[in-house]
Structures are given as structure tokens and as C-alpha cells.
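pinging the channel bc i need a second pair of eyes. not urgent but kinda urgent?? the chain im working w is below, pasted from the shared doc
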Amino acid sequence: MSIRRVNNIYYYKDRAFEIEDGSLFIDGMRITLPTRTAISTVERLMLSLGMGIRADDVNALFDITAHTARSILSSMTTLALRDLVIIPSNVRFQKQIKYGEVVFDTYLKAINGSGRIRSTNPSMRWLNEEDTLQLKAKLFTTSDHSYQAGVHSMKYEPTQLVEMIFQTALTLLLAIDFKENEVTYQPLDFVVPLDLLRKTQLRDTMMLLGDCIGYSNGFVIRPQLTDEQHSRVYSVFTSIGSEARKQLGFTNYDIGSALQTICMHLVTDPLQYPLHQELVNDRHKFRQQIADEANENIEWVKKELTSADNRKDMPKQYNSIPTLKAYFEEALILRKEIIDSAEPMILDRAMAFAKPEWKVVWVDKQKKVPKFIDTGRRKESSVFFFIWTQWERQIREVMMSCFDDPSACHQVHDAIYSRQIIDPKVIEAAVLEQTGFKVQISAE
């Protein structure tokens, strides 16, 4: 179909645009047209951000502080979607930009934490209502048997196509030369050099860049802390993998078997929980015993032990793993004692943040259509979690006080990450003196 012109307005298919004085007017935007037939990556980024470009911008240094990191990464996502012909060129410019925004936002949520995304999330709602290209099904899988309407949001996982999109976006980003910024550093800030960025896993790279606040011999990352539960603190540093933290030059000071260690200090008589105490005394030997019985690796055992301490019902698989079965039965009693004996303030906080307990009511039992009703009670495993993690927080705070600058320590669940090297025995002694908890600290 050819371009039509009516009174200085051009029409192509269902789109209208004007060209005047070297500028393109389209979708309410004015874009300065280049005098060259080809444009550089930095110029493509500038155009996608709604910036005009000049003849000498082909080798321009891009100032990352002029825009939010997310808007830049959303624009790079748009460029990748176009380059891979996932978005056709005849799609309205504003909609192309919107696709980049929602795909990037959905990707970050899918790779972070549980990967569950509420249907009320703005990006997910847009994909459900405005996705005329039907990209959602191509980019994210939703095979989640634990989904329960009103209880558990749907879990999303990126497809291989998404990985290709963001690898393309990263390649485009690394083709840009960035302006060096003057940055006033805060204690938790760190720099990710370009050579390190190329070695980091793609998912970690994208999460890190989402918290970029400038460029100075690399991308300056400023983690945004979420600290609302009197227990654990969350940030991009908790979301990236342990290997990425190590590559960034941080040492992991970890509380060995934190859950079990803390609980053995909270119960009246640890001898009533011999298997938990055995794990605390020699976690390597205990885990290996279960690994041999289950014919599984140690990573599986570590996850399953944590799961066993929080399960309501025992999986049938445990019947063939004697030690794990006995451990689960012991955990049921332990959990109840921890909750029943919790200090009032600790328990009140735990109840405030614990997940609700749901009851299933069958709307249509034959068709298996359930409805989930809040019983008004809190989920026992969740109350348990928010009790022992409050004590875990106290231990972490003492651990941090052992370093020259405690505010520069990153908190990651049951561990502290720091670039400073100190003897773990110093930390153990401080924790014992200030909290009464005897812990084993490893440094890796």
C-alpha cells in the first residue's frame, strides 16, 4: 500500500504523520529527522525515549542519569523486540514503546522471588487487555498447579524467546558509550564494570541494571531496600545469585543452619528435638545421611529440610526416607512450641505479617470449582517464620556491628555480605556475648 498525501498530511495504512522543517510529527510527538540514512544504537535509544537527535549525535556519549534506569531498559527492550521482528514495524510507535515497558516489567517480576504476578498488576492487566499481538503466551509460561484465585497469584516463567530478547537488549546496551557521572556514593552502592557485566547471568544483570543510578567506570548500582516486617530485609542484592555477589567482590558471612540453631535456643529442652540438634551440631554429616537415604544431592536435602520445618502435611516420598520422615514429625512439635512460647511483642509482629489460612468451599463439587475463604486465622508455618526470623535479624545486626562500616553490609536472609575480611570467630564471639545465641559462622 502506497503513502497518500492530503493537505500536507501523509497517510500510510491507518497512520497519519507530517513532515515539516526536518521533523517528523507522529502520535503527538515531534522527532527531529536525521540527515543520514543509518542511525547508531545510541540514536535509536534517544529516539525511543522521545529525544530529538542532531547530526553529530552518531557518536554521542549517553548520560544515563538523564532518565530512569527502567525507562532506558524498557526502551532497549523495545529495540530488541523490533530487531527480532517480534513487533512488526507497522505497529504504532507509542504501542511499541508500551510493549517494551510491560515486557521488561513482567520479565523482572517473573525472575524475581516466587515469580507470582497479580492480575491487578498494571503490566499484566495491559497484557491481558491490550496485547493485540498475543505476545504474552509466547513470552511467558504459566504452568502453575498451585494457583488459587484470590489466594495464590499465577506464577510466570520466561520462555527461551524472552531470554533471546533480553540478550539482544543487553548487546545493544553494551554498544553504547556512556558519559562518566559524578556520583555521591552511599554505603550500599557498588559498581558493576562492563567486563563483569558480560560474565554475569542475564537474569542477574537485568535486575542489577534496574537499580542503576549512574555510570562511573561501570554501572553504579544503588539497592532499594524493603524493610517492613521486623525480620528480613529485601533488595536487588537478595535477588541476584550467590555467584554474582561473589563476582562483585563480596564475602558471604553465613549463619550455619540458622533456622534450627535459633529454634534450639528458643525451646525449653533441646533434647526433645534430637534430629534438629544433630543438624545443628554437624549439618554436613546429617545432610549426607539424608542424601544417602533419598539418593539425592545435598542441595535437594537443604531445600527439603527447610520445607519439612514448614510443611503442614508430610509428602508420601518421606515414607521411604526414614530420617527425613522422623525429622518432619519432630518439626511439627517444634513449630508449635516456638509459637506457644513466643514473647508477646514477637508474636504480635508475627501475627501481623503472617499469611492468612484459607478454607476451601466447593461452589460446584462435581465440576471441582472451589472458592477460598479466609478463616480469620494465620497460617502456622507463616507465623513460625516471622517469629524465628525476628531473632535472626537481631543476630545479623550484631554481625554487622563487627565490621568497620556496618551500614555498608548487605543483609541477605541468614547472612551478611561485606568486602571487608574478618575472622568468623570474632563474629561468633560477638553474637554469643550480645544475644546469647551460639552460632557457627562461615566465610565464603
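so The CA atoms of residues 240 and 261 lie 26 Å apart. and The two ends are 64 Å apart (CA to CA). — does that match what u expected or am i reading it wrong
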